[in-house]
Give the backbone structure.
Amino acid sequence: MLNKKVSRQRRARKTRARIAEKRTVRLAINRTNLHIYAQIISACGSKILASASSLDADVKKDLANGGNKAAASVVGQLIAQKAIAAGIAQVAFDRSGNRYHGRVKALAEAAREHGLQF
């Protein structure tokens, strides 16, 4: 019988395999109970081009809680700005097997609103 963690890892593996076939830059997210993290990873998968999280000093000073939708929106905005500054406009969204709901959705929508396309 599969548990929640194994199911999420299986979904993440399938998504990453599809993204690897396309050979495109990806926006990978990691969600924990307390924080949310986003990274722009190169097409070959070996280099992090930009990153943002709710632990960053500029984000942390404005938010009391790093594990809510408001924090996810700020991180989405920040990662979009960093990606565009690095010359990246088009990415593949890797939600790491998490549902497109809540904080994951808030981060993705904020990144789209600030110019990132996926």
Remarks:
- The two ends are 34 Å apart (CA to CA).
